[in-house]
Structure formats: C-alpha cells, structure tokens
Amino acid sequence: MISLETPKKHRVLVDQAHQVAMNMLRPISRKYDLAEHSYPKELDMLAAMIDGLSESGSSSGAGAAGVRREESDGDDGRVRNGTNLASVLSVAEMCWGDTALLLSMPRQGLGNSAIASVATPEQQARYAGTWAAMAITEPSTGSDSASITTTARLDGDEYVINGEKIYVTSGERADSVVVWATLDKALGRAAIKSFVVKKDNPGMKVERLEHKLGIRASDTAAITFTDCRVPAEDLLGSPEIDVKQGFAGAMATFDNTRPLVAAMAVGCARASLDLTRDLLAQAGVEVDYDRPAQVQSAAAAKFLQMEADWEAAQLLTMQAAWMADNRKPNSLEASMAKAKAGRVGSDITLSCVELAGSLGYSEVELLEKWSRDSKILDIFEGTQQIQLLIVARRLLGLTSAELR
Predict the structure, then answer these.
(1) What stretches of 119-192 show up as alpha helix (H) in DSSP?
(2) How are the residues of the chain apportioned to helix, strand and coil, as percentages rounded to the nearest 5?
(3) Which of 51, 72, 151, 339 is the most exposed place for a label (fewest CB within 10 A)?
(4) CATH topology classification for 8-126
(5) What is the pLDDT of residues 353-388, one digit of tens each?
(6) Within 10 A of 150 (CB to CB), how many other CB atoms are there?
(7) How far apart, in whole angstroms, are the C-alpha atoms of residue 145 and residue 245?
(8) Sign of the CA dihedral with 322 first, then 325, 326, and 332 last
(9) If you average pLDDT over residues 66-82, what whole number do you get?
(10) Is 137 helix (H, G, I), strand (E, B) or coil?
C-alpha cells in the first residue's frame, strides 16, 4: 500500500532538489522571466551535475522511467517506490524554485518521457543523453490528440513526415523532437505513432517562438515538417498498426507525463503557499492548525482551505506515480492527478496574489509570476476539460465515441 510519507530512499534526492531550487533557480527566476527567449546558461552547470550523479548512481530516480504497459515484474508482494515516484517528488521541489527553468533543463524534456514510455530497449540505449522536446498539438486539433493530421509515409527505409506543430516546449533548444504523426488517416487513432526527429534534419524548421503569459524562460516553438525524412528505426516502439489496441500505445506517454505536470503544479502552488504564510504572519495574521477555520480570520480560513486542496493534489500525484512504479494501469489516476493539480495550482496561486494584496500583484515578490506560470499547467498535456472527460469515461466504462 502506498505510504503518505516521502520514501526513505528518495529523501536525499528530494532534499537535493529543494536545495537546487532555493539556491540556483530562485535567484535567477525573475531575470529569465524578463529576458524571454534567452537561454539560462546557468542550467548547463546544473545539467552537468545531474549527469554526474546519474553516472555515479547517486541520483536514482532523477528522471521518469516511463509507464510501460507491456512490462510486469510479477506480483511478488513487494511495494516499489521507484523512479516515477522519485521523479514527481523531485519535480515538485524544482518547481518550488521555478517551473519555467525546470522546463528548460537540458535532457529533461517531455519528449524524454515519451521515449521512456514507448521506445524499444535498443532505442532507449541509442537515445541515451538526448534532449527531446515533444510535438503533439496542431493548429486545427487543439486538445484532441487523436485527430492529428501530420502524416508519416513509409518510403523505403525512411518515413517522410509532413505537417505543422505548435506550442512545442523546448522546440528550439532541444537536440531532437518527438513528433506524433499518423501512418494512415483512414485507420484513425490506432495509426498514430511517434518519431524522433533530430534537430539538424533539413525537413524540420522552427518557424517562430511564442510570446507567452507565463513560463517565459522556457522556449515554446511552432515547427513545420516538409518532406522531413526520418530513418524507419526512429519510429518509437513497434511500427505495426494494431486496430484493437487503438490509441493505447500513445496514451502510455500521457500516463507518464501527466503526473509530472501535476507535480509541477503541486510545486508551484507550494511555493505560493509558503511565501503567503510568511507574508500573512508579517501582517499579524497567524494560521492556527489547532483551531477550526470558522473561528479564525477570513484570510486564515482561506489559507487552510487552500492547503487542504493542495494536500489532495499532492496525494493524487504520488498515487499515479506509485502505480506506474508498481506496473499498475494508471490512466485514470494520471488524469485525476493532472485535473486536480492543474486546477488547484491555478486557484491557489491566484488566491495567494489576492491575499497578499499589493505585494502579490507587484514584482516585489514572485507571487504574480507563479500565478502566470501555473496557468499553463492546467492546459498542456491535456486541458482540465479533457482530463475530466477521460475520468468520466473511465468511471462509467464508456468509449470516446460514447461520451464526447
């Protein structure tokens, strides 16, 4: 059974992540928020440190292992607190420092999670050390990933990709991009596969970088693919189209990335709560955890309600990751965690701005920045509405055709 405490073997990693967030990310947070599209060079040293720890084995769990549906370690009764749980705990701590800077970390892209989830063992080894962005969203598809129009046509021992992707996180800086494309539109979502496209491929072009409300330190690109030729071996997983399996192969990626995005929201919200508690205390408002909320000030009562919501989001996120570590199907839990944490993160950060008054709205503190950063965490990797739809389908046992 899952424990509500941070597993002992992960505490050192989580403590290290918190120190990095406090001493390396927080000090440069405002700098790169104002200097949108400027690469945070300080992250190169941090990435080198993480690589060194990984090679030494000291940072077991520094990156998501992926949700691999086909694997099973057997039901031997042992509870595994593995890489997925370690990842969400450390990601939350890093986002306590700065969400955009975490998203800018070399070799920690969302595409890396896709590779971890569906790549073959040979591909896992070949792509080791790469920094992969993930390209899913298109101008005409929005949240409906199953209806993407980017195509991949087999030509000899290469696939030829044509299409356009938008809102690709780290699309300019990453070494490669994991591109979702369909092998046959007539076969629907079952024909959707993902491909690793290297940055120097002449058929791939970064058209522009987006100016955004939040996470400004992270580059977000629009990319076009024009007769982009990719070796057949760079199709992730099996090239076979399994109509019975449908979209399950692609969804394995989301089962991995959605808890990570939920963890980002949890970390950003925690930062806002910690700072707001200090600001309230300075203003003479004490939050008493031993007294009912209704007998405390309105500000204290609001704070207690936010902390309760935050706790629920954190536990759902830990549950989704723990289930992945223990090779349990976690699609429902991943969507529940993403839905809860995304909404709670946005609500908490905005409420903290309100509670802090003029300090919350000004650039004197980071509260206004966190409220801007948190909004995207309720949108990307599947919007709030999409997550609730997935949860409803799972609970009611209905297909996407039966419940839209």
Answers:
(1) 121-126
(2) 50, 15, 35
(3) 72
(4) Butyryl-Coa Dehydrogenase, subunit A; domain 1 (1.10.540)
(5) 999 999 999 999 999 999 999 999 999 989 999 999
(6) 22
(7) 16
(8) positive
(9) 58
(10) coil
Phi, psi (rounded to 5 degrees) for 223: -130, 135
Residue-level pLDDT at 82: 84
Q: Give the H/E segment covering residue 321.
A: helix 298-325
- Euclidean distance between CA atoms 219 and 40, whole angstroms: 11
Instruction: Indicate the DSSP class of residue 143.
Output: T
Strand, coil or helix: what is 286? Answer: coil
Q: Determine the straight-line distance between the first and last CA of the chain, rounded to whole angstroms.
A: 34
375: helix, strand or coil: helix
Intervals of CATH 2.40.110.10 along the chain: 132-234
- 176-182 and 158-169 strand pairing: unpaired
Q: What is the pLDDT of residue 68?
A: 53
Q: Is 70 annotated as catalytic?
A: no
Whether domain 132-234 has CATH 3.30.420.10: the reply is no
pTM of the full predicted structure? 0.92
Burial 166-189 (b: 16+ CB within 10 A, else e): bbbbbbbbbbbbbbbbbbeeeeeb
* Structure tokens given for 27: 């000090």
At 163 the three-state DSSP class reads strand
The catalytic residue among 36, 333, 381, 402 is 381
Beta strands in 106-175 (DSSP E): 132-135, 151-155, 158-169
Neighbours of 350 (CB within 10 A): 19
